[in-house]
Amino acid sequence: MIVFHISGENEELAKEELQSLYEAYGKLFSVSVEEGLLLLATNDLDENALSRLAFTHESYIVEKLTDRKKLDGLLLELEIKKGQSFCVRCLGFDNNSEEERRAGEVIYESKRNKVDLWKPDVAVYLIKIKDMILVSTRRIGTDDFSKRDQNKRPFFRPVALQPKFARLLVNLARLKKGDTALDPFCGAGSILIEAVVMGIKPIGRDLDRKMVWGCRRNLDFYNLKADVDIGDATDIKLSSVYGLRSSSRQDLLRVAKRGPKTVDAIVTDPPYARASKMFTKDLKKLYLDFLKSTFKVLKKGGYLVAAAPTTKDFPWKAAGFEKVAHYDYYVHASLTRRIYILRRPK
User: Which of 99, 117, 141 is a domain's end point?
Assistant: First the structure.
């Protein structure tokens, strides 16, 4: 069992991300108990997968389950070796700090181990959900997105996605490590960067030559590798000629043969501002042509995750997609993004 402490900024999206991650690894996501921002899931998941989450603060692998009456007895049975320091952390109680003090005293009186609140050898986590108290010594945190904040990149664009939001979009596409994802509107590379960090193979295309240059520069800044090249999202070519010493017919044919035929998922943030160079076309037609093009290169059963403004029509049905779900995500007073989770029928 796993306890998830989800983010309160959008609880529906947090739950959808968990559902998506479980599906990516072929497992069922089932919540047995829920209270506030705490969810108890019955099925386990690999710790490396859990660390990918964007809209979950932390996860706890449950080792013991008890109630208030039996808690002290369980604390006395904890395996804390002689000489190991410890601390207690509580979540979900009416007074977490008071419960930490009380539980810490029980352990100390029985074992006489040193209390270390900052760098303990063993951290004991007590999580209360309803009438249950869950005990864990294995907390899985999530990534420090501030390290990849868009303001710290050498190529900055104010419209670039925040790393946390980009990570969410990638997770919603049901991708596992080693899968291939395409962003046909890659811009400054936010989605590609998060995909590489998670062990997913990204392909980035953008019609704006300057954006492609900036995206490569940002990837190089973090020492990350991705297939990035100039490309039209309404006529997607998966093979890249970037890096070839010549553009001879033989070279182009060689690249075309070695390139992938389809991708496992498409994750993107299509343009919606008039500043975009894609606005040589009507926006509705742009979206439709983009969706039709992605349908051709997405594997059967694969997912397309895209964020578009709620004020714009996104003609997914006309392109042949099935809609799994959509969620509205408030950005600021003049923009609410609608996140579409679409699937190509098998």
Answer: 141
